[in-house]
């Protein structure tokens, strides 16, 4: 069964998403007006740093103008930065929700970084990652837990 993973990160509530295909995860951001996803879906697992995984099955940054991504073959580590996204408001690191090896990079983003805003779940994906430790998925939250986490986080800001 393929996995879909979508990650989000950064103090500016940069949203990252990932989708899996044949044991590789696609990472792609999504933005919302709150610190958490504007829509939280059932069947997903969420980390308290806003990464999320799906078995395949405060202020946002604004319009993305530049994306820096790793090359294929580079390792990524759960919770650590693998690239950055620059918007008209700020530059933010993008953290990997899982550990593994980058197997593909979305080259469309170098010419059209705005795909991250307009199509975060389809054309705006960032990287595909071959996971090195699939058990990391177990540390992520389901939709209900993530919704509660976001509500508590929003209330504290």
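Q: What amino acid sequence fits the structure above?
A:
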């Amino acid at each position: 069964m393929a996995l879909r993973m979508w990650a989000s990160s950064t103090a500016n509530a940069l949203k990252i998403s990932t989708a899996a295909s044949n044991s590789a995860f696609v990472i792609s951001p999504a933005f919302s007006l709150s610190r958490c996803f504007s829509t939280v879906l059932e069947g997903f697992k969420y980390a308290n740093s806003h990464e999320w995984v799906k078995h395949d099955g405060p202020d946002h940054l604004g319009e993305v103008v530049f994306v820096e991504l790793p090359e294929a073959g580079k390792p990524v580590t759960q919770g650590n930065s693998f690239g950055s996204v620059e918007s008209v408001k700020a530059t933010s690191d993008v953290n990997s929700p899982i550990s593994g090896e980058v197997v593909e990079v979305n080259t469309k983003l170098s010419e059209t970084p705005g795909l991250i805003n307009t199509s975060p779940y389809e054309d705006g994906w960032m990287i595909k990652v071959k996971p090195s430790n699939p058990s990391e998925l177990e540390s992520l939250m389901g939709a209900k837990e993530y919704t509660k986490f976001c509500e508590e986080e929003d209330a504290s800001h």
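Q: And what stands out in the fold?
A: The radius of gyration is 14 Å.
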